[in-house]
Amino acid sequence: MKKLLCIVLSLFSVAATLLCAVPAAAQNSYVTQLKNAGFPDSYATQLAELKEKYPNWIFEPMFVGVDFDEAVAQERTPHSQQLIQMYSGNNNKGYYCTCSSCYKNGNYVIQEGSTWVSASQSAVEYYMDPRNFFDERYIFQFETTAYDASQTTSGIETIIRNTWMYNSNITYKDSNGTTRTYTSSTYPNGVKYSQAILNAAKNSGVSAYYLASRIVQEVGGKTNSAGGASGTNSTYPGIYNYYNIGANTGYLDGLRWAATSVADNKTNVNANMRSAATTSSSLIVTVPSGTTVSILSTTGTQADGYKWHRVTATVKGRSYTGYIRSDLIGDAYNRPWTNPYDSIINGAVYIAENFSQDQNTGYLQKFNVNPESSNMYAHEYMANVQAPSSEARNTYNAYREAGVLSAARTFIIPVFDNMPGDELPAVRNVKVTNITSTSATISYNKVSGADGYEIQFYYDGAWHHYVNTGYNSKVWSTFSPSSTYTLRVRAYRLSGDTVLYSPNWSSTVKFQTLADPEKLPAVKNVTFSDITSDSVKISYDKVTGADGYEIQYLNGNGEWKHYVNTGYTSKVWSGFDADSPYTIRVRAYGIVNGTVIYSQNWSGTYTFTTAAEGFVDLPAVQNISVTNTTANSADISYNKVSGADGYEIQFYLNGKWKHYVNTGYYSKTWSGLNAATKYQMRVRAYRIINGSIYYSENWSSTVSFSTKPTKVTGIKTANRAADGRSITLSWNAQTNADGYTVYRLSGSSWTAIATVSGGANNSYTVSGLTPDTSYSFKVRAYKTGTGNLGAFSDAHSTSTLVNGSSIAQVKNIVTSNTTDNSVNIAYDRVSGADGYEIQFYLNGEWKHYVNTGYYSKTWSGLSTSTKFQMRVRAYRIIDGTIVYSTNWSSTASFSTKPTKVTGVKTTARSENGTS
User: Fold this and answer.
1) CA 351, CA 856: separation in Å to the nearest integer?
2) Which pLDDT band, with edges at 50, 70 and 90, does 25 fall under?
3) What span, in angstroms and rounded, lies between the C-alpha atoms of 241 and 248?
4) Distance CA 31, CA 19 (A)
5) Number of domains present in the structure of the chain
6) Is the domain of 584 the same as that of 524?
């Protein structure tokens, strides 16, 4: 469903202050930020609730600059531009236009298809007013349609779930009616619809979820029977238009558009001719789609990313010369579209080029109120007034299921002048009283000037309309038992048939209905205490919403009999026979209009035995003492109770008291306990009468103790630092322990050097050690509490690595017996050294000469008549690696002698014999 496409491409700039994502703060702080950005109070309050929940969301106002009523009137000119579908969900809401042009002879005029009629003024006002959609589901009609790299095929599958495209490869019918699977060199085995949509998003720069929602809106269904998706139209067989582009009066227009390729010298859209080769230059004229132009010249790629043609064209009989973008002339969309893949890919390009600049939200593509657009109130993608909110819900579902709702997102929201209902204040003092399982009284203060009130309830992540009412106090009776509800109320005024809602909501109120008595849950935790020969105290948990409880007992014939109805959850009942077993069960009940209605859910069955005649309860056990604890045992003692035949010991484990042992001892070592564990225990006495045990109802005080950790095992060296200054120890963890103490042998005694907190932290690095030195360590675990130390581990001996600084300096270098090419070099031996490095200073730097095990040796092969500087350092060989000392000797100097003079001879003699 489309309006005539009057396409204008102009750069969209938002006259707004960007709201940066900020950390969560008080809601009032967000309200202030939103107001500072230019949002009015009626926007800021609701948007602040979303901002508080999703602090990464960014809201930008787009100031329309016209009154809201004026914008509605322009959008409805003519009424046939705003359509709504007649169906049960829209009936009885005043959403269908009843003007003389749209309602004739008692029937609504069908504008498109068989069910699409003109939307009423109140419907257009409702869907144009952004404030009606400020919840986390419908806010996405204001999200920018720009490509989002976080979107996935899984999210797309969520959007197309209820269509034939879900989790399916693309199949289609060609022009001959033959069913084919779409393949290509990239997808030789076929491709899913979801992948095609994601490819289209990446290629066009448009949101994948927006494209998927658009496709579902236009051609979605359980089957591909929609005109743009079937490929079976007799006029345009094998043609596809998944976005219904160009479908001005119906899908046939769209198929005609998808089947038509535009000549190279014709405009393919309504193209803006500009005064210069840039989108920021002034507009000369809009050249209608399909107009023949003469191309005079073509520019290179400009700063705005486009190439431009300088052209002449005739519009309405007048000739114009100017610049048109090169992509707006000729067929830029690879028509005809003979398969779904081509339609999805190329249609997305069309949307990007024609709607993604100054109509870059779902809302703006339906209601083009952007003041920057040269086609304000026109050039709209669809006529369906409900399309933006419907598509927004699809996007929300995809984001939610993908778990990315809280990611950073930008929403561009129109702000009109003189919004309706601004003058009505918020409803105050909302109360919910007289709550039953299915009804409640909702009341609130009257608002001066209001004609009525709207009540909304919050569920499924959004606010939903419940009722419009003139009452400010009324019993509503459509609720479910045992359910929690959250509601809010706002006032409205009537303007003719139009409802003008206040943007100012009451505070939210939460309440819970009572349970349906028949569905009250089962009574739990039935217990018996204070048992005598003829009485017992029966206790059980309270059931929310119950008015009382019925106790039944099992008679000798195996029949359940009523014993009592009671409001008590703990009471002593008498009249029982001595030394007799009884089996009971309990259920809750409610009283509705004076009638007792029993729950269908019983407790389990429970049995107790009354005491024998003459049984006297025993006193509480006194003076419990726990001593000599080990890792798995403890000595437990207490005072003997006169008349007792034994004692029951219980431990508190996993939130409940558990029986440990019955014993005749009142002082004994008990083993089999868990190491490094804190226990709570209690003791009571018992008597044995006629072979039956009768426990005292009087427990001792609760006593706590902890067992010790076990001996630490597995101690070893985990790592030695290369500098020889530290060693890392590790050992087997004891997760029940609270930590460990590390000890080092100092002389003949062990000294604690560190405490490691946490039983799972089973390593420690000992620092400050001396390189090339042996050490011994022990570790023991501890449990917080006096004396709760485990046994020492075995001693672990280890050593630090050698460090160059620990190897002593070579001293007393002496050079002797120098010749013309050799010298004897001697120096003091370094204890522990495996060898020595000799270096000479040559050409301005120290050069390695030799590594040697000698500390006195004659070295030959030196240069004649040369002065040498030399130095020496010791080294160690550790695990096959040479570790050099960092301590060099002092520098020594010597010179080699000249070589022996040779070749002496007479080269000349004087005549007089004197020379």
Assistant:
1) 90
2) very low
3) 13
4) 12
5) 7
6) yes
